[in-house]
Amino acid sequence: MQRIKIGVYDSGVGGLTVLKQLLKKIPYGIDFFYFADTARLPYGSKPQEMVRGFVFEIFDFFRHLNVDAIVTACNTTDSLLTETEKKSLWIPFFSIIEPAVRYLRDSISGKNSVAIIGTEVTVKRSVYLRKLIIDGNISRISQKACPLFVPLVEEGLSDSELTERVVAYYLKEIKAFSPDFLILGCTHYSYLKNAVSKYLGNKTQIVDPAEHVSGQVIDWIGEIGDTNKSRISFYVTGSAEDFKRKATFLLGSNGELKVNHVDLERLGEIINL
Amino acid sequence: MQRIKIGVYDSGVGGLTVLKQLLKKIPYGIDFFYFADTARLPYGSKPQEMVRGFVFEIFDFFRHLNVDAIVTACNTTDSLLTETEKKSLWIPFFSIIEPAVRYLRDSISGKNSVAIIGTEVTVKRSVYLRKLIIDGNISRISQKACPLFVPLVEEGLSDSELTERVVAYYLKEIKAFSPDFLILGCTHYSYLKNAVSKYLGNKTQIVDPAEHVSGQVIDWIGEIGDTNKSRISFYVTGSAEDFKRKATFLLGSNGELKVNHVDLERLGEIINL
What we know:
Two copies of one chain form a homodimer. By secondary structure, chain A is an alpha/beta fold. Chain A folds into two domains: 4-95 and 213-266, Rossmann fold (3-Layer(aba) Sandwich), CATH 3.40.50; 97-209, Rossmann fold (3-Layer(aba) Sandwich), CATH 3.40.50. The first copy, chain A, is built from twelve helices and ten strands. Chain A has helices at 16-25, 48-65, 75-80, 83-87, 97-107, 120-125, 127-135, 149-154, 161-177, 193-200, 214-221, 240-251, and strands spanning 4-10, 30-36, 69-72, 93-94, 113-118, 140-145, 181-184, 205-207, 231-236, 259-261. In chain A, the strands form two sheets. In chain A, strands 4-3-1-2-9-10 form a six-stranded parallel beta sheet, with helices on both faces. In chain A, helix 1 (16-25) links the parallel strand 1 and strand 2 (30-36). Chain A is globular and about 50 Å long. The model of chain A has no long low-confidence stretch (mean pLDDT 92). At the A-B interface, helix 8 and helix 9 of A face helix 8 and helix 9 of B.
């Protein structure tokens, strides 16, 4: 039986939080292809047109890998694509923003306040903000870009005292405003959940979009019956060794991860697996 | 009379500290071309072979601009080039590491200790370390990579309380060892001089390589007599607007800076000025 192939991508290790959720929640054996554009990271501080160019290169790469669906594990690129672009891909595209917005719409009551944190691009694009405002059921909403969070996480400093300082630096106004919900609008930020939660206190519920992606993917998969173990192949544009070390730690993996280096020049070409 | 053209490059705004020194110390009118590869920044955390590729593209770009000399304002790339490569360029290449090493060799006595901070690549390449050890006249030497310093500076946070925390985080061991000299082995770090100096205390003399580059450039220029004002053209691979804002602030410029965007794909092609 042909196994389902799913492409998951991010600029770096942030999207592993999405991959982890998919591995945990999908009850079937899937072939995952995780692409991390570590050579061009961070995405969130770069010009929007440039990052849009990167995404379509990644789509081309997935086309050559012959995947059956793409799950974006990157809020920045998700915010840069139009609904039409997402719908007109040759295979299903699963957004990370959409399910989190739906979850919030179902959870909030008229008097709730929401804050969103993300990269500079994500905050400029204001997709979470606009989608939640359209619903109209929020008393107050604000957003804030935290550009140092991605480098912090990529440096493996998520649980350091330094991170607590950086979190306090960026979230000062949000803490003062004490929102009912805080959306982690960048998958890298999932690793900072403890520090963010500790700083903001119990009143604020942290919403991690990575936790809400799997639902629609599971619906799409339906019943396939393959109960063998899922497999993951990693593709990175930067150092394979470096990524292997980080991903092994972040995924809490015991086995040897299969990490392939991809030359940026060859992204659009056919790759022999 | 033909004015001298000098190409200066860095991954981002760090090299502006070198440009500032050249503008201040060269007594003649020069046409400067400052290239910042902001779309591919940071350099210091990327694979070495990839960054070497970037440098040769930048050299190609300068070749098409027909510059008379290249001044590197980037320690990372300087540390990646061999002596032979630097000498076999079609025009003179001025290192940022060399003059700082010479200055230190002349300044240190047998009992002095030295610490070097830089990007991950610069620290791995150990060029400062090896060149200073070869001299043998040092009692103790150490080096440390500080990967968050470049993002901090690019974020415009050099004088924030957050920077003091990050400085304390990275320089803890160096403070304990209390070296006589600390080399700022990355041009971005020049902007953190105050925070670094405040943290390490008076015993440690901060050596900023950007301040030592101009001497050999001035010797090479000789007497040309053009006493008109120097001109600067900026070329960036990322957002021109963003760079203009940052550079205007960092250079303390009153006038309008001329910042051009260069497509990465067109780096090696002929550019119409």
